[in-house]
Amino acid sequence: MSCTIIVGGFFGDEGKGKIVAHIAHTDHPTVISRGGVGPNAGHTVHVGEKEFGVRMIPSGFVYEDAELCIGPGVLVDPRVFLHEVELLGASGRIFIDGRCGVIEEEHILRDKGSEHLTKTIGSTGTGCGPANADRVLRSARQAKDIPELAPYITDVAEKVNKAIDHGEKVILEGTQGFGISLYFGTYPFVTSKDTSASQIAADCGVGPTRIDDVIVVFKAFPTRVGEGPFSTEMSLEQSHSRGIVEYGTVTHRERRIGNWDGMMARYSAMINGCTQVAITGIDRVDPACFGATDYDQLTETAKVFIQQVEEDVGRPVTIISTGPELSQIIDLRKKQ
Ligand code: IMP
Ligand code: MG
């Protein structure tokens, strides 16, 4: 296994960050490169006692032995990027491709000022949609045009491909989720780019023949932020009574919660070319599984759920997250 893509199978926020961190600590990649839209994505990073909502730096940050890259397909907001690099002390091991599109203050104003984007679609207001529009119109600036970004600029595509050539391990990190893909999601209630595994590879400049594994991450109880259809959505009373309450990392909006959607999972796995499935939040299926590190510690209820997932998706479940900590995980990959 030399090049692995990790993507979200539902509507984003599946807990990809933790799966990336676990695989990085287990497989020791030399390069972790993120694809995806831009700073509309968010993940939480713990540094000591402190918690940070991070939007530009890859979640692979927590694995200190890898170089971190932002692929040319991604939009960079220089203010957000430079702030995070300083906050997390990532300087020296983070690189941006010079061809990344740049988000200007004006893009954020256009995003927040558009009733269609903020009200109808429920955008994150981070300027991604307008910046991608300008990129398509070929009027957006590129990262290499911004003097403050100069110390971080490199040819990410070349760096990633060379690492693969040398037989090193590489992780390509997706953001967002399948259901909000511009191409395959619930249009128009989607983000401003495709979010599937092929797009993540393209975002980082990696061709399809170079990918060894595609791990699709599904939440046992999917969530959605923003507007748009959500066929298995439950009422707030139902989700609250199950003790499930979540807030968006970027917008702090309360996330909508739904039940497992086998049909969507199967379709998502097909388009993503899924080879393995990761399940997060199994402790919500049965709280008795909280913190389990071995398959045998799972309850019958949880095992039945996992079997159902494998039947629905048609691929093996190889990673099961049982709680928020990095150690609270079951990894069946070596047993395959
Ligand atoms: P935009 O990408 O900010 O234009 O937002 C469009 C839609 O995608 C909204 O419903 C957002 O809530 C959703 N969205 C964008 N990025 C993410 C993400 O990283 N996780 C979850 N939802 C997202
Ligand atoms: Mg997120």
- Rg estimate, integer Å: 19 Å
Helix-residue proportion: 25-40%
Give the end-to-end Cα distance, rounded to a whole number of Å: 13 Å
How much of the sequence lies in strands comes to 15-25%
N-to-C order of helices and strands: EHEEEEEHEEHHHEHEHEEHEHEHHEE
Name the strands of the widest sheet in spatial order. Answer: 9-7-5-2-10-1-11-14-15-16
**Contiguous runs where pLDDT drops below 50 for at least 5 residues:** none
Largest sheet: 10 strands, mixed
Overall pLDDT, averaged? 96
> What's the tally of helices?
11
What's the count of strands? 16
Structural class: alpha/beta
Bound molecules: inosinic acid, magnesium ion
Key features?
single chain, 336 residues, alpha/beta, two-stranded antiparallel sheet, binds inosinic acid, binds magnesium ion
Report on this model:
The chain is α/β, with parallel strands linked by helices. The protein contains eleven helices and 16 strands. It has helices spanning 16-27, 78-88, 105-113, 115-121, 128-136, 156-165, 197-203, 236-241, 262-272, 282-285, 300-313, and strands at residues 3-8, 31-34, 43-47, 50-54, 67-70, 75-76, 94-97, 101-102, 153-154, 170-173, 213-219, 223-224, 256-257, 276-280, 317-321, 329-331. It has a ten-stranded mixed beta sheet with strand order 9-7-5-2-10-1-11-14-15-16, with helices on both faces. The protein has a two-stranded antiparallel ribbon with strand order 3-4. A hairpin with a 7-residue loop joins β15 and β16. α3 crosses α5 (128-136) and α9 (262-272) crosses α11. The two termini are 13 Å apart. The mean pLDDT is 96.
